[in-house]
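Researcher: Here's a chain I'd like modeled. Treat it as a single chain, no partners, no ligands.
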Amino acid sequence: MGDWFATVALLGLALEVTGSSAVASLILVLQSGPFFLVSPVAGMLADRFDRRRLLISADVARIFVCFGFLLASDAATLWLALLCVSLLSVGAAVFEPTAAASLPNLVDDADLAAANTLNSAAWGTMAAVGAAIGGLVAAALGRDAAYLLDALSFALSALLISRVHRDFRARRADGSHAEGAPLGLRGLRVAASETRALARGSRTIAALLVTKTTFGAGMGVLALLAVFGRQVFQAGDVGIGVLFAARGLGALVGPFVARAAAGDDDRGLIRGVSWAVVAFIVGYALLPLSPGLALASACVFVAHMGGGAQWFLSSFGLQRAVPDALRGRVLGFDYASVTMATTISTIVAGLLAATLGPNTALYVMIGIVGVTGGLWLLWTRPLRAATPPARTAVLPTTLDG
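Model: Modeled as a single isolated chain. Structure tokens:
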């Protein structure tokens, strides 16, 4: 929730002091670019060190980063906000893969689907609440209040995690943890090799690894939400908050719909992702045709109901299939691929919006998702058409390098 308080305020600040949609999209680029660079390293750390301490450390560090936003108030100091956005992205790159890798160890196997549903729904709820209230807070109390609430949210997160006493890593039969992952460049090479071996051994795992990236290729649309909310619909920071809140509500509902419709088998997961692709494309394709903010919000809701379903299904499938000793590294590469695609997409969307206008930029983004999603649908057709072979999670033989 705190992140969305800050994001809405920062997007409003960037558009106010520069009037440039490209600068606004740069904020979203800096939220994903460092994430792409750091998350593979974070995956190694998650498989090597105490995951609870990693999560708490990432939260505490981001408390102090949030204070840096207080120094940015005009075009001359906007660079400080951009620097702090980058540092928050580094913290998130450590936190997110580590949290995802830990989740299967914090619940019983039978509860993993429900836990992922609740986890995705919690993200969607906080995105909706944070974005909506964040716009109101920024308008009523000023942007500094939004930044301070973001700092407070990290403190609360660290406190909650410190009170979880279940082991965040799986233990072997003798009660010890698996041998820690190698670090450095060798560790990255080994992690990449292990991830490739898992993907080669199972088309389902490969499909689940690729699907987030197919969405990420068009996620530059998020930068356009700020432009539509503030400039197209003339609703200021509140308009930005409303559209991002609709995104959060969609992400909240999507996992529940996906879990009820897709089931827990691999074929159901792939079929669910297929429908999610369609919902995302249709929702955003209708957005420029909306006569007002209310209908536009409904379009964004439909699109991100698909996005939330896709994230839940792919994350649940990977958590279930990948052994704990490798899970941090595999999920680190999964997050890296989607954030790389998102970064490139956001840069392209910002440039297109600045030169050709937001409507054209949005349709280009949807066209990209249509192409990448269509290729994914063709490639996974055998997985949807018939029951695939029994799922196996094979430990690669590259652990010794």
